[in-house]
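User: Can you recover a sequence for this backbone? Please restate the input before giving your answer.

Assistant: Of course. Working from this structure:
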């Protein structure tokens, strides 16, 4: 019995603590992402109950762009700023996003990318948590009547 418990614990540690596969993370980046919270340090977190802006990420063959958009109730979007060019690379078993604008270049590391959740850390150690954006359905009340 003790031997089985030890095997279970060792197996859990080996398979439960593995880093996410960067290639699998890459497939989840495309789409609209709404900021959930920003963790400046362990003791300093800013929650966003609702943001008027959404980040749109589009990558093809590890190259693409990210831009801020403002969603409207009719399902359309207004682009808030110019595109930030993005290049996704895998370094040291991590998915890195390299950004470039006419004014600056910077890098972020993807901590986790799933179908509906995304977390990214920048060079200053600030962690950004996103949820997949879901438009507000203003016609829901009409359908129930």
């Amino acid at each position: 019995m003790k031997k089985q418990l030890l095997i279970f614990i060792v197996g859990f540690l080996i398979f439960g603590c593995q880093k996410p596969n960067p290639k699998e993370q890459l497939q989840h980046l495309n789409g609209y992402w709404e900021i959930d919270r920003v963790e400046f340090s362990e003791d300093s977190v800013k929650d966003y109950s609702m943001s008027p802006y959404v980040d749109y990420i589009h990558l093809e063959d590890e190259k693409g762009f990210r831009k801020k958009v403002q969603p409207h109730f009719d399902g359309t979007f207004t682009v808030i700023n110019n595109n930030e060019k993005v290049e996704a690379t895998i370094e040291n078993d991590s998915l890195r996003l390299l950004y470039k604008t006419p004014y600056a270049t910077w890098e972020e590391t993807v901590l986790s990318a799933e179908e509906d959740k995304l977390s990214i850390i920048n060079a200053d150690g600030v962690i950004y948590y996103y949820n997949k954006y879901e438009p507000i359905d203003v016609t829901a009340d009409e359908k129930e009547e």
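That completes the design. The chain is about 15% helix and 50% strand.
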